[in-house]
């Protein structure tokens, strides 16, 4: 039987979707890129196709992921950015060799370096993180309201009042919990 890996949670913002490959950080964490192959698959979804991935490169990716998470969380809270996280993000950004290219249809594609290394893909993700943390893009960093999640997400809603990192998971779960609490409350007062 093939091994079942946790599904990806795919958001529209590259950097925070990447940090979302580890979810439920404050509950029972779910690692969504448990193997180098899974990281290759994830990168592919975002148009960052790499030739291969080693265990060391997966570690590098996870280090970047946790650094983006730490810096984005600090930015969302208005706290000073952790220096070590900033260092990792900058190192990955500098060492990537990807270029943005335009397709004949007018779409942006990423062209990684000549050997399509994981480092090139991480450079793109790091640069995306720099943009959203530095406030260069229209939107606001916020933290998921779920106490077991607290993921940093990029709110691009008009009112900037989004509460959940993901409506289908955290948002839904919270809605169900509220509903159950109300039902319990109702049956309690009836009895
Ligand atoms: Zn969440």
UniProtKB/TrEMBL annotation:
- InterPro entries the record matches: ABATE (IPR010852), ABATE_dom_sf (IPR023286), Znf_CGNR (IPR021005)
Cleaved signal peptide residues = none
Q: What is this protein called?
A: Zinc finger CGNR domain-containing protein
- Species per Swiss-Prot/TrEMBL record: Streptomyces mimosae
Question: Could you tell me the superkingdom of the organism this chain comes from?
Answer: Bacteria
Annotated coiled-coil positions are none
The residues covered by the Zinc finger CGNR domain are 141-183
Pfam families per UniProt: ABATE (PF07336), zf-CGNR (PF11706)
């Amino acid at each position: 039987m093939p091994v079942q890996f946790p599904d990806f949670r795919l958001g529209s913002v590259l950097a925070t979707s990447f940090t979302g490959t580890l979810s439920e950080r404050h509950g029972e964490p779910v690692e969504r890129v448990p193997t180098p192959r899974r990281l290759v698959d994830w990168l592919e979804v975002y148009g960052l196709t790499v030739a291969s991935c080693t265990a060391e490169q997966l570690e590098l990716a996870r280090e970047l992921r946790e650094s983006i998470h730490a810096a984005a969380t600090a930015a969302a809270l208005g706290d000073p950015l952790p220096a070590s996280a900033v260092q990792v993000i900058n190192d990955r950004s500098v060492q990537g060799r990807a270029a943005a290219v335009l397709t004949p249809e007018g779409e942006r594609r990423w062209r990684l370096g000549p050997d399509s290394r994981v480092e090139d893909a991480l450079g793109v993700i790091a640069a995306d993180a720099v943009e959203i943390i530095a406030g260069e893009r229209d939107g606001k960093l916020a933290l998921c309201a779920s106490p077991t999640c607290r993921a940093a997400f990029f709110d691009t809603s008009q009112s900037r009042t989004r509460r959940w990192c993901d409506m289908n998971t955290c948002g839904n779960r919270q809605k169900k919990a509220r509903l159950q609490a109300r039902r319990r409350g109702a049956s309690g007062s009836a009895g």
